[in-house]
């Protein structure tokens, strides 16, 4: 198999956010792509996520600005509260903070469908396959071969060849497990997340994110529906987080695991903060999903011959700092850019890994230390009974340094984003 810099063929295992953005970015670069997704039908599953400006810039460049603006909330601010509801830190976000592009808060399933519809409309007919599970793969000096089981046709094997195989097959990646068979299950943080959406009156700006609590008990909420905002209401995504006993076994990281609110509600029963009523949000949810807070250790390498990892298959991270999906999108952009820029496929994959593996490893490790949420734990440690003035507990310079350091680590400091956006 040969390839020119404006052509080539890439097989993508995984049709989630990372896989679909990769397909769109490579297609725009002139690459023939074929996507294989394990689920039989792509549906708008999950709850809310955030897209930071560095990732939004990429999505806008792919022609998705109108769809995102009509669907997602353009986040205006981030507010941190202690467990008593007192303000620790508040900062503008996205365009309100001077970025050339917004930060979006959006339902993960709605984002998935925006990407899926764009891929169906953009890629050649038949380029996206659902119900196809990766069974095995091989790599040679000239390309990669992947074998998928077609669940809709009695697990019939589909053999596909390409110049490269991109594994965007998630935290339980078949490809990653093949490369690192002794790695074991994801690394459990000792904390469980309960996630849901609830209809509620708007709070603060109607486009605000609120983080409350500390490392052992935390509540996060933010609106995710522009349509409901225009109606004067909010569809609020919320996450309740609790530390569990050290010997507790984590549930499988599966977005479809539903639980009853009684499992976790009691510790939040008195969290009435004025601007948000935590028990009311919990009670208003129709479906609550349990999810372990897990990640994996950074890998020594992603690329093996003509096969490489991307997104959660490469760098699953704690959902701290709102960066998981954003980092997968940045992977996709880098891979497409290097495919064009480098003289051959091997050089492109090497350059992609060289740029993204250290960068994402830094985010994984920063998230383990709390990322920007570190301010919550500092307030808890220094003033567990509350405070009169936060400046007497954590100087403003320290709060600013924590926020700015994380933005730089994750690559979404304003200067970097605006420079890449051409501003």
| Proportion of helical residues | 25-40%
Structural class computed from helices and strand pairing: alpha/beta
The share of residues in extended strands comes to 25-35%
CATH homology superfamily name of the domain at 9-45 and 107-184 and 301-370: FAD/NAD(P)-binding domain
- Give unreliable regions as ranges: 1-6
CATH architectural designation of the domain at 9-45 and 107-184 and 301-370: 3-Layer(bba) Sandwich
Please give the radius of gyration in angstroms. 21 Å
Main sheet makeup: 8 strands, mixed
As laid out across the biggest beta sheet, the strand order is 6-5-14-15-16-13-18-17
Mean pLDDT equals: 94
Tally of helical segments = 12
Overall morphology: globular
What do these coordinates show?
By secondary structure, this protein is an alpha/beta fold. The chain has a domain at 9-45 and 107-184 and 301-370: FAD/NAD(P)-binding domain, CATH 3.50.50.60. Helices cover 32% and strands 26% of the residues. The chain is built from twelve helices and 19 strands. The strands form four sheets. The protein has an eight-stranded mixed β-sheet with strand order 6-5-14-15-16-13-18-17. Strands 8-2-1-12-19 form a five-stranded parallel β-sheet. Strands 3-7-4 form a three-stranded antiparallel β-sheet. Strand 14 (208-214) and strand 15 (217-223) form a beta hairpin. Helix 1 (17-28) runs parallel beside helix 4, helix 2 (53-61) crosses helix 8 (324-341) and helix 8 (324-341) runs antiparallel to helix 9. The longest helix has 24 residues, at 345-368. It is globular, with a radius of gyration of 21 Å. It starts with 8 loop residues before the first strand and ends with a helix. The model is unreliable at 1-6 (pLDDT under 50).
């Amino acid at each position: 198999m040969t390839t020119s810099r404006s052509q080539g063929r890439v097989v993508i295992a995984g049709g989630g956010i990372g896989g679909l953005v990769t397909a769109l970015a490579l297609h725009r670069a002139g690459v023939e792509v074929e996507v294989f997704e394990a689920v039989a039908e792509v549906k708008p599953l999950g709850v809310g996520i955030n897209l930071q400006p560095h990732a939004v810039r990429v999505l806008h460049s792919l022609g998705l600005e109108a769809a995102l603006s009509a669907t997602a909330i353009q986040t205006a601010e981030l507010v941190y509260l202690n467990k008593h509801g007192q303000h620790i830190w508040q900062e503008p976000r996205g365009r309100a903070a001077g970025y050339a592009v917004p930060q979006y808060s959006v339902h993960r399933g709605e984002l998935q469908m925006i990407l899926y519809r764009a891929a169906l409309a953009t890629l050649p007919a038949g380029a996206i396959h659902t119900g196809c599970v990766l069974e095995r793969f091989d790599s040679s000096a000239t390309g990669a071969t992947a074998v998928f089981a077609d669940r809709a046709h009695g697990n019939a094997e589909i053999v596909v060849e390409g110049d490269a195989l991109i594994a965007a097959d998630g935290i339980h990646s078949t490809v990653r497990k093949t490369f690192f068979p002794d790695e074991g299950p994801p690394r459990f943080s000792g904390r469980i997340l309960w996630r849901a959406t609830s209809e509620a009156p708007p709070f603060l700006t109607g486009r605000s994110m609120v983080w409350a609590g500390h490392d052992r008990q935390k509540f996060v909420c933010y609106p995710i529906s522009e349509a409901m905002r225009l109606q004067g209401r909010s569809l609020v995504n919320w996450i309740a987080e609790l530390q569990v006993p050290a010997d507790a076994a984590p549930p499988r990281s599966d977005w479809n695991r539903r639980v009853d609110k009684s499992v976790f509600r009691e510790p939040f029963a008195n969290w009435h903060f004025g601007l948000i009523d935590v028990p009311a949000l919990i009670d208003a949810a129709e479906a609550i999903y349990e999810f372990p807070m897990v990640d994996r250790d950074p890998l020594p390498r992603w690329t093996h011959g003509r096969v490489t990892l991307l997104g959660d298959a490469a760098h699953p991270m704690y959902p701290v700092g709102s960066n998981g999906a954003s980092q997968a999108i940045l992977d996709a952009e880098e891979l497409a850019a290097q495919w064009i820029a480098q003289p051959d496929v091997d050089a492109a994959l090497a350059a992609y890994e060289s740029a993204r593996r250290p960068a994402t490893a830094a985010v994984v490790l920063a998230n383990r230390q709390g990322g920007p949420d570190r301010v919550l734990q500092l307030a808890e440690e220094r003033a567990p009974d509350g405070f009169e003035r936060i400046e007497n507990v954590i100087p403003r310079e320290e709060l600013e340094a924590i926020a700015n350091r994380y933005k730089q680590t994750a690559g979404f400091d304003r200067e970097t984003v605006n420079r890449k956006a051409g501003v």
